[in-house]
Amino acid sequence: MPGKQLIVFDFDWSFVDQDTDRWVFEVLSTKLRRKLQTIKSGGSQCTPDVVAECMVDLAKDGKTQEEVLDALRILPLHPAMKRAVTSLQSRLPDTTFVCISNSNEIYIDTILKKHDLTSLFHTIITNPAHWSEENKNCLMVGRRIPADSPNQHTCQVGCLVNMCKGDELENWLQKNGKKMDDFEQIVYVGDGGNDFCPLLRMRAQDLCLVRKGFELDLRIKEEGESAGLKAGVKYWTGAWEIDEIFSEL
Ligand SMILES: [Mg+2]
Ligand SMILES: [Zn+2]
């Protein structure tokens, strides 16, 4: 009898085939895409802060809410990824899907709605976002853990200041009255350096689905063993491979 599965998805380059933050600027403004790049490579590591600043400029440049939403609606979600999750859901209906992402609420909701996947995730853990009341074309993006919150994370694995994905996974379990052992297997689909932390919290029977050639791949090779990674690792390049792996769960 198949046991209960918990599937945890990172969003950018994992669930979707793009980086949501970069994509919106690539579609709407080369100047702001460059600005995003320049600030990021200048050492500012808190992604939602950088995105928030560039979104203010985008609204000033006259881009509208509808243009931002349209850009998100054409962001690539691979049909095989949609097939992977919908097939798994119908084959093993007691599977729980959770999304932990450093994108933001508006981006993720818009994309899921476009693809009729709004009810897929039990919970979407991400940065807050809303359209400004003074200017409905300006998206205000905040931090998952606000800068003035007394509850800053203390993770030493190298998570960004606004979110520790390992803590988020454990907090989600606790909030829902669950322990890891309530799930026969936890499967994590990720690509980024910030996906390394939650993998370290997982058990030997769990599975990390790591996108080949991205930062997580590198971190696992360099630090996986010394950091005590216990979960199994499988590598993937295209969404069809996720579909294939899911069909064998
Ligand atoms: Mg990612
Ligand atoms: Zn962490």
Automatic annotation (TrEMBL):
<keyword id="KW-0378">Hydrolase</keyword>
<dbReference type="GO" id="GO:0046872">
    <property type="term" value="F:metal ion binding"/>
</dbReference>
<dbReference type="InterPro" id="IPR006384">
    <property type="entry name" value="HAD_hydro_PyrdxlP_Pase-like"/>
</dbReference>
<feature type="binding site">
    <location>
        <position position="191"/>
    </location>
    <ligand>
        <name>Mg(2+)</name>
    </ligand>
</feature>
<dbReference type="InterPro" id="IPR016965">
    <property type="entry name" value="Pase_PHOSPHO-typ"/>
</dbReference>
<dbReference type="InterPro" id="IPR023214">
    <property type="entry name" value="HAD_sf"/>
</dbReference>
<protein>
    <recommendedName>
        <fullName>Pyridoxal phosphate phosphatase phospho2</fullName>
    </recommendedName>
</protein>
<keyword id="KW-0479">Metal-binding</keyword>
<feature type="binding site">
    <location>
        <position position="12"/>
    </location>
    <ligand>
        <name>Mg(2+)</name>
    </ligand>
</feature>
<feature type="active site" description="Nucleophile">
    <location>
        <position position="10"/>
    </location>
</feature>
<feature type="active site" description="Proton donor">
    <location>
        <position position="12"/>
    </location>
</feature>
<dbReference type="InterPro" id="IPR036412">
    <property type="entry name" value="HAD-like_sf"/>
</dbReference>
<dbReference type="GO" id="GO:0016791">
    <property type="term" value="F:phosphatase activity"/>
</dbReference>
<feature type="binding site">
    <location>
        <position position="10"/>
    </location>
    <ligand>
        <name>Mg(2+)</name>
    </ligand>
</feature>
<keyword id="KW-0460">Magnesium</keyword>
<dbReference type="Pfam" id="PF06888">
    <property type="entry name" value="Put_Phosphatase"/>
</dbReference>
